[in-house]
Each structure stands twice: as structure tokens, then as C-alpha cells.
Amino acid sequence: MKILPTLNLRSVSMDDAQALFLWRNDPDTRRNSINTEPVAWEGHVAWLTKSLGMPTRKLYVAEVGGTPVGTVRADNENGIEELSWTVAPEARGKGFGKMMVLQFVQEKLRGEKIIARIKDGNPASAAIAKALGLSPGPAEDNTATWR
């Protein structure tokens, strides 16, 4: 029997700015993001500062053994939580993405309606959306909204 590591979710703080910046600008992350452009440090800090003050945004870092392995976010608009997540490059391929998103939905959203926008050609995120019980809608601009 495989023993799964314990994953902890904690709120993001400004202390996480550097890690989030590196993850966001990782080439694989950018390729699978809605906005594929590199993010400048100043813009990232402004985004994070604004994000931490938004009551409609939930933003968490996932850690395993005290080591950050990814981030997961939900933005509430009209009672619908739009999910977004990033797995740290060094943590990919280990199942942490699925673990952190499922745990986030169970612990932080508690039955709220969720969606995720996923680009075509991103099978890892599509598998996570399927694990959440979501199904893809028609794609627009190579991106499907999973409900």
C-alpha cells in the first residue's frame, strides 16, 4: 500500500512572492496559463498585494513536509468559484496538483459551485478537473470552461 504524504494548505503571504513569481514565469506554467506573457516582478508584487486584500479571492500555498509544492486560488463571482492552480516545477508528476486542488475544494469551498478554465493540450489540469467531477464545455480560443 502506498502511503500518501500529508499536504497542508496555508494562506499566501507576501513572504511567498518570490516563489509564486518563479512558478508563474516557468515556461510550462506560462504555456498552460490563460495569459502566456511573462510577468514582471513589479507587476507580480502589485497583483499579489491586491490579491491579498480581495475578499472574493481565496489564495493558498500547498506544502508537503514544510516545502511549498504549489498554489491554488478561487475567485468568487456571482456565487461561482473559478479555480486556478499551479504546481511548482520541481513537484510536478507526483500527484500534488490533484491532492491540493481536491483538498482545497473540500476544506475551503465546502460545496460551492466551481468552474475551471483549462487550455486545450493541458491533460494534467483536465485530469484534475475530471477528478472534481467537472466536464468541459465548448472551447473558445483554445480554452474550455469546465463545470
Please describe the structure with a list of short key phrases separated by commas or semicolons.
Aminopeptidase; alpha+beta; single chain; 147 residues; seven-stranded mixed beta sheet; 34% helix; 5 helices
Account of the 3D structure:
With 147 residues, the chain is an alpha+beta fold. Helix content is 34%, strand content 33%. It is built from 5 helices and 7 strands, in the order βαααβββαβαββ. A 7-stranded mixed β-sheet has the order 1-2-3-4-5-7-6, with helices on both faces. A hairpin with a 2-residue loop joins β3 (67-77) and β4 (80-87). The protein starts with 6 loop residues before the first strand and ends with a strand.
Structure in a nutshell:
This protein is α+β, with helices and mostly antiparallel strands and 147 residues long. Helix content is 34%, strand content 33%.
First-to-last CA distance: 33 Å
Assigned CATH class: Alpha Beta
Unreliable spans are: none
What is the fold-level CATH name, i.e. the topology? Aminopeptidase
The neighbouring-strand order within the major sheet is 1-2-3-4-5-7-6
Integer tally of domains:
1
Number of continuous helical runs: 5
Q: List the secondary-structure elements in sequence, H or E.
A: EHHHEEEHEHEE
Q: What structural class do helix, strand and pairing data support?
A: alpha+beta
* CATH-scheme architecture: 3-Layer(aba) Sandwich
- Mean model confidence by pLDDT: 97
Fraction in beta strands? 25-35%
Subunit organisation of the chains: single chain
Question: Biggest β-sheet: count, sense, barrel?
Answer: 7 strands, mixed
Task: Give the tally of β-strands.
Answer: 7
> Can you tell me the overall shape?
globular
- Report the C-alpha radius of gyration, rounded: 15 Å
